[in-house]
Predict the structure.
Amino acid sequence: MRLGHRGDADDDRSLARFLQEPHFARDAESFVERAGLVAARAQLVRELEHGLAAARRVDARGERDAGRQLRAGRIEDQFRRRAEGLFGGIDAGEIAHAVFEPRGEMLGRLRVVARGLLERLGDIGDADEQRAVRPLLIEPRLASNAEAGVEAPRVGAAHPHLLRKLFDFTATAPDGKRPHEQHQRSPLCLTTTIRFARMSRKKRVVGTAGHIDHGKTSLVRALTGVDTDRLPEEKRRGITIDLGFASWFTSEYQIGFIDVPGHERFVKNMLAGVGGIDSALLVVAADESIKPQTREHFAICRLLGIPTGLVAITKSDLVDRDIIELVRLEIEDLVSGSFLEGKSIVPVSSTTGAGLDELREAILQSVASVQDRDATTRVFRLPIDRVFTMKGFGSVITGTTYSGSVRVEDEVEVLPVGRRSRARGVQVHGEPREEASAGERTSMNLADIALEDLRRGQQVLHPNTLRPSQIITARLELLADAKPLKEQIRIRFHHLSAELLGTIRFVDDTEGELRAGQAYVQIRLEAPVIAVVGDRFVIRRYSPAFTIGGGVILDAHLPKLSRGTRPEILETLASGSLPERVELMSKLEGLRGLPLDEIQSRTGIRREKLAKDLKRVPNVVVTGNTYLHHDVLGIFRKRAMELLDRYFKDNKMAMNVPKGEFIQKLIPAGAPVNFLLADLANQKIAVVQGDALDIPGRSKTLGGAEGELARMIESRFLDAALQTPAVSEIIRAIPQKPKVIEGVIAYLVKQGTLVRLAEGVYVHRDAIAAARAKLAAKKGQTIDVAQFKDLFGISRKVAIPLLEHFDREGATKRIGDARLVL
């Protein structure tokens, strides 16, 4: 169909026979071998060598100069190396892509090669030598010889115009941009030039959908030249079982096709592939019209929020026009009110090629309406849909990059398995690249991770960006033809490429079961999933497995919500702005607050973007990178006052509240403790001193019976001086419960009235001060324990702990068995 746009009549005739071969693009390598392009490449290099040798001989005969001969030989060697570098870098896939793309696009990219090669002639000879070499690049016979000698099916007889135009003297790529200087200066390689042109294209992913045997795979093969059935069983049975992939390149777009299975038994495989597509290609066979899997696949695409799409009526060559129009009416009725309403419906035949050009144009119109995916402000996510191993490389995963970007050598993490790895290599649409971005079909070679640790449904991310969850808060839509959905029934949860089991619990006012429409739910999964706000999902019954609904994830890390949650909370989760949702989430999280890393994990938005967008969040205070709600702080302050009052009422002789005890009773793990304690101090609710808290201005003097008892006990210790009484003596002397007396003594110690020298040894502070003053009279002298006992007339039981107390206070310094009085 495109030959009319590729060349003149001779070109068309020469290529037609080859293109009509039914297996022309089943495999890129076999295509190259059968077309003879490998031989053509070698032939072209030989022609360059022969031409240069002839030029050297002519030049040598004319000049009779050995130096000129040597220089001509050097020209030949250098130019041959450049020619081999140019064509030696072509791989089979690159040649296949180049040949099957429209002529204008192919020529535009390859013109860059010719211009760079011609410009470099100045580096390998003078003007005469350049004149000798230049004609070789545009010699028609060269092109003729390069294409000749290929057995049928063959590219054709000599058609020099095509190859000559490839080497036109234009220095710009088809998009108007010049190649990077590095590509111009280095030995030119056709592969590099083609890749340069492709990197600037917009990336889109198109997914097929439709009933089994409606021609999805044949249609993709007709559009791209790639047979997506790769499994032996698929080829034997003639049906698609797992996902297949193909690429189509245009001047503006790099489109990846995901071909999905149509059999009802393989819907789960279909779901693994359509989670990241930009446009849905619904396929309906003209001879069968709409079938059960047509409806189910269409419902899945609608539930997943696919933004746009189109419909292909396949096998149009098998029915007359009236039947096609009838099928069109049935399709319009099916898609009415959906994302496919008013979209293109194109009859095609993969066998005859009828309608393929119109379908290609409709696909381009469809993807043109899709916004570019966010590769800069969202975290990198690559849902795995295929894993395999390559000899010499190790584990390889593939998928559609859902958001963000990844570069070669980046550290990555596979979740939820929790394995760290390194992106040893990255390919996009089968081409090696330094970086893969959102919307691109991506393969990644992972270092230091075994194949058995990888499986479909996992996600590859940068470390510490997202975290797994097993409780999903969501808004669920039940399909109109589904049976009522009962609470706690086991379901299959499909999210991106993952399938998990779980149960549903209603959190709005839905009672018992959902009969129709929508409901707010929390889904408890049996295994963790990596999800963020706004992700789409589909649910299917556990058995028999068929699609019953789906919806949008509102949060993957909320605490458990109760039935009858206030509508305003659910509505904010569903439709609130980012600051409004952060305000709500910070309130629901309580004193733990909402760290910026947690917001990133819930939303998938990178920290840098969040910090800019959340500078003003209503009713929220920010401490460090944690967001605390004002209402939560208000409740905390009130509870702190109540706890302090109650503590001192229950412990009348307590001097303060131990900080650890206060935190344990009031502040949960993970909360910003220092900020909360500082807030209590700023609000004059508490005084924080070291490891204790107190109420500002609180009197520390005991009153009533406790005060009288304290004065009585203090008097006994004051009168005894260093002849301190034992606690047991105090208990025997005062008619009060032992615990009460021990509590008063502890109070006097905390107050500083008594000094605890050792277990059961207490001395009044005035007695300590008097002893220190008396000891100061011996400053500079040494004193041992016996002398110390005699000096104060005390027992060894009091003397040793008192000396140790003076050591700690700096009044004495121990030297051997004696003390130096300081």
Notes: The chain has 31 helices and 35 strands. The domain at 576-700 is CATH 1.10.10.10 (Arc Repressor Mutant, subunit A). The chain has five domains: 3-191, 201-368, 381-461, 576-700, 704-821. The first strand starts at residue 202 and ends at 210.
